[in-house]
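Protocol step 4 of 5: obtain the predicted structure for the target chain.
Materials: sequence only (see below). No template structures provided, no constraints applied. The aim of this step is simply to have a reference model before the mutagenesis design in step 5. Sequence pasted as it appears in the construct record:
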Amino acid sequence: MFRPLGLCIGLRYTRAKRRNHFISFISLTSMLGVSLGVTALITVLSVMNGFEHELRSRILGMTAHATVVDRNGPLRDWKALADTVKTHPLVEGAAPYLRAEAMLTHLGNVQGVVVQGILPEVEGEVSVIGERMVAGRLTGLGPGRFGMVLGVELAGSLGADIGDKITLITPQSITTPAGVLPRLKQFMLTGVFEVGMHEYDSALCLVHVADAARLFRIDGVTGIRLRLADQFAAPLVSREIGERIASHYRVVDWTQEHASFFRALKTEKVVMFVLLMLVVAVAAFNIVSTLVMVVNDKAADIAILRTLGFGPARVMGIFIVQGTVIGFVGTLLGMGGGVWLATHVDAVVRALEGLLHMRFLPPDLYYISELPSDMRWPDVFAITLAAFGICLVGTLYPAWRAARTQPAEVLRYE
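Step 4 output (structure tokens):
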């Protein structure tokens, strides 16, 4: 089988036992450096994808995929609007909500909270709150009962248990013969939920929408929350719904409401990609060092090849092949190691925790106590191609230097 002579010589230099063992050591470390860099990059991006997916799931489990509000104030005829919106084929559920801010006090403890009025019988269509109850039930909220459901951290900071009376203080005031006083109302704690997000577990208070409207003197609701069959189609569905309803209504999807948060996550992924790619670049510099030393070590061989008719391009090809083999093997090993580690990172972390008798992500400090991993093949291929490209570029200077070897100068004293 025909093979170019330059390719054969390059492969021979790669696997031959060199007189200079230091060059072999640098070559091995270059290969391992590329491998470790690619493995770390694939693993880190997979873990960041996992955290992004987990955070998105938890956030969208509590907030709506899209929200319809009235630009002019409270939404009064929400039932008719909900029926219109639900005619869209991608809308799976619609539920009203009323949101306001207030303070809770119990046993001398005071906490500022976000009060959200909900309709328990349809709340399950747009959120997972009913599935995350750790005490009581969401159906315990009824009109005129003045019951409330709190996040587990909020209930703990107030020192409240199921059945306790908690005083809710609204920003609105009332005028009495004794002066201007804030409006107060006692609610009974009927349930506690835990969704694993500090924003909700520590500051969200759920009451029946009728009780909230009466307490805050609001005629109607704040808006309607929607759940879609495809959360990533939210911008398109929002535009289509906006075209079906009156112009004084406004439709906001989750990509607009949480845009800064997910944009920050994306920026972090880009920064981590660049930083960890520098590890691969360092390994590529080692490949440059290896090839430069090989060029110096094989100067006589290069000179002889030049006298036998090898042109500069063919000489360059020899060392490009050698550097490419080092980069290819290192990249391939890193890809295999990264894919394996990304798919087994949780088991590896648990094994290390058992060996070291410690928790890397204690559940009392972190709301996501496991390392979620979401390996995506497009990321793997992009990392592999980028790493191999860096290694390939690193071979050009040593190969060019070898091609400039002057046979007469090298063989003068041979």
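Step 4 remarks: The radius of gyration is 33 Å. The first strand starts at residue 66 and ends at 70.
Proceed to step 5.
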